[in-house]
Design brief:
alpha/beta, Rossmann fold, 14 helices, binds nicotinamide-adenine-dinucleotide, binds 2'deoxy-thymidine-5'-diphospho-alpha-D-glucose
């Protein structure tokens, strides 16, 4: 049986990962969830999971040394998966300090507690030894690589030249790009926002713990996730929520910035693959091969909701506006995000080649599923926005 410490599992990706793990591994798993339940963490998201006897929920801060040491003392943790973070770029611009505390100091505390709990002395050459089968996986982001240029105004079909990667991604004709260059695992770190600077710092600490203390680690760097349980301060769920309320859709700048979108369950599968089979000490990039401009994303979501409301009138019960109002007139261009990165584009060839992972969910399938999930889970949205977020939203717009 493998025992996991999953931090931040009451948030978007962590919750999806927890659900995926419990579904995949049956009785062969035990998970301690550690989450501080910030504005972004919602226990309702994992209500069913924490009632499961394979899960123990601990409310607390990853930066609390005593608490984390106690978790390691009580449970012989095999895998640490660190999702816990302050994750929103705009909030990092208004309050960078909090991002340092959680994303850097918190991560370093987890590393230190894992190192102490797993340490088993030294080998004959004086190298540190750790208990068998342990791993610390840091969930990082493509934003640590900085920003790429956008070379095309329209999407170009993506040419995959590596035959091994082509084999893994076989049959997909929808993959496209807006530029010539991509982030690989060897791209130098060049963070540009307080959020990405804090995530890059954490990555450097993870690497330092591997190089200095020999701690078994992996870092995964992922592109923009979308899917169920995404907090509605982020672009896609914010747009869905505003459309249903007939409110303006704030698009930063001209909406030309490009993000690479990955369905969250595909991300969960990638993390599982890296934990099980990733080479210790390695970084793995995880991406969707699916770049899109923000403006196109917003237009697409409007079109999907307008179609569903036309064809399936029973869904109109979730509308707080008239169906006729759902169109592109809702779009409003607002001031740009300071230091707004133009384009992110992950090259996930390494994980495809080494671990056979690829982004399985075509965007048109994933985005339709996501929109429908939100239409069916308005009670969840109301619950998560009822507190702190409402104040934040009013400040922003
Ligand atoms: P999220 O904001 O939805 O959730 C973060 C979770 O961490 C929440 O449950 C929150 O309560 C918890 N948390 C925050 N501070 C904590 C602390 N000090 N101690 C314990 N728990 C704390 O975030 P997300 O979008 O699910 O992102 C998860 C991870 O993945 C983050 O590390 C983020 O940097 C990374 N990431 C996210 C994306 C994305 O598109 N969302 C892409 C790449 C990488
Ligand atoms: O790339 C991975 C990153 O993706 C993760 O590391 C972050 O945790 C995650 O929040 C996400 O960061 P972004 O800044 O890309 O996501 P966000 O949803 O905030 O914004 C997506 C794009 O949409 C970005 O170019 C800014 C723009 N945007 C965002 C909001 C909230 C708008 O135009 N209007 C908006 O209201």
């Amino acid at each position: 049986m493998k025992k996991y410490l999953v931090t931040g599992a009451a948030g978007f990706i962590g919750a999806n990962f927890l659900k995926y793990l419990l579904g995949k591994y049956g009785r062969d798993i035990y998970v301690v969830v550690l989450d501080k339940l910030t504005y972004a963490g919602n226990l309702g998201t994992i209500r069913q999971e924490i009632a499961d006897e394979r899960v123990r929920f601990v409310k607390g801060d990853i930066g609390n040394a005593e608490l984390v040491a106690q978790i390691f003392a009580e449970t012989d943790i095999d895998y640490v998966v660190n999702f816990a973070a302050e994750s929103h770029v705009d909030r990092s611009i208004t309050n960078p300090q909090l991002f340092l505390e959680t994303n850097i100091l918190g991560a370093q505390n987890l590393l230190d507690c894992a190192r102490k709990a797993w340490y088993r002395g030294k080998d004959a050459e004086g190298h540190p030894l750790y208990a068998e089968g342990k791993k610390f996986l840091q969930v990082s982001t493509d934003e640590v690589y900085g920003s790429l240029t956008k070379d095309y105004d329209e999407p170009h079909p993506l040419e995959i030249t590596d035959p091994d990667v082509r084999r893994v991604v076989s049959g997909r004709t929808d993959l496209h790009t807006y530029g010539k260059r991509f982030f690989t695992e060897t791209t130098p770190l060049d963070p540009r926002s307080p959020y990405s600077a804090s995530k890059a710092s954490a990555d450097l600490f993870v690497r330092a713990y591997h190089e200095t203390y020999g701690l078994p680690v992996n870092i995964t760097r992922c592109s923009n996730n979308y899917g169920p349980y995404h907090f509605p301060e982020k672009l896609i769920p914010l747009i869905i929520r505003n459309i249903l309320a007939g409110q303006k859709l704030p698009v930063y700048g001209k909406g030309e910035n490009v993000r690479d979108w990955l369905y969250v369950e595909d991300h969960a599968k990638a993390i599982d693959a890296v934990l099980q089979r990733g080479r210790t000490g390695e970084v793995y990039n995880i991406g969707g091969f699916n770049e899109e401009t923000n403006l196109n994303i917003v237009k697409l979501v409007i079109a999907i909701i307008a179609r569903i409301m036309r064809e399936e009138p029973e869904y109109r019960r979730v509308l707080k506006t008239d169906v006729e109002n759902i169109d592109e007139r809702l779009i409003t261009f607002v001031g740009d995000r300071p230091g707004h990165d133009m384009r992110y584009a992950i090259d996930p060839s390494k994980i495809a080649r080494e671990l056979g992972w690829y982004p399985e969910t075509p965007f048109r399938v994933g985005i339709e599923k996501t929109v429908r999930w939100y239409l069916d889970h308005q009670a969840w949205v109301d619950e998560v926005v009822s507190g702190d977020y409402q104040k934040y939203y009013e400040q922003m717009y």
